[in-house]
Write a structure and sequence with these properties.
Strand order of the largest sheet: 3-4-5-7-6
Number of helices: 5
CATH topology of the largest domain: Phosphorylase Kinase, domain 1
Oligomer: single chain
Helix content: 25-40%
Distance between the termini: 46 Å
Low-confidence stretches: none
Number of strands: 7
Shape: elongated
Length: 154
């Protein structure tokens, strides 16, 4: 018997002769329970950027073929306090939903890494765009409006 929140739940054992069918069934259960590992769900692509504690990769969802950005954070580089702060920050970021803020999809954690899966923003860095092109006042005001709108939301 398995105890779950003061309720008694009977355990069940299932059998199947075909090992491939068993593995497929387990994969489906893990997927429905959102219990797949990062490596089981995503194909790692090219590196998009690197920071002091993390690297951002372009990845592809194996099932949907959707392309996302994944921030891979090296946990041994963080203090215990930084790890806890990051976990809390992830919980807050999951709640954010605004058209001018990149959406976080999900997160994974292993002994060595934390993975933050986000929508991939295309078009490059805003700072690089400003340096390369001479922007008109109208374009600058639109950019500023979007930035202020996002900050106001937060």
């Amino acid at each position: 018997m398995i105890s779950h929140e003061q309720k008694q739940v009977r355990s069940r054992t299932y059998y199947h002769r075909n090992q491939e069918a068993i593995l497929d069934w387990i994969k489906c259960l893990k997927q429905e329970a959102n219990n797949l590992s990062f490596e089981e769900k995503y194909i790692r692509g090219r590196k998009l950027g690197k920071g002091k504690f993390s690297t951002v990769f372009q990845c592809q969802n194996k099932e949907t073929q959707e392309v996302v950005a994944v921030k891979q954070i090296h946990k041994p580089s963080l203090t215990d306090r930084e790890k806890e702060f990051l976990r809390e920050e992830i919980q807050i970021i999951k709640l954010i939903s605004h058209p001018n803020i990149v959406k976080m999809r999900e997160s994974y954690e292993t002994d060595k890494y934390m993975y933050i899966i986000m929508d991939q923003a295309t078009g490059g860095e805003l700072f690089e765009h400003i340096k390369m092109y001479e922007l008109e006042e109208r374009e600058i005001s639109l950019i500023m409006y979007q930035l202020v709108e996002a900050i106001q939301y937060l």
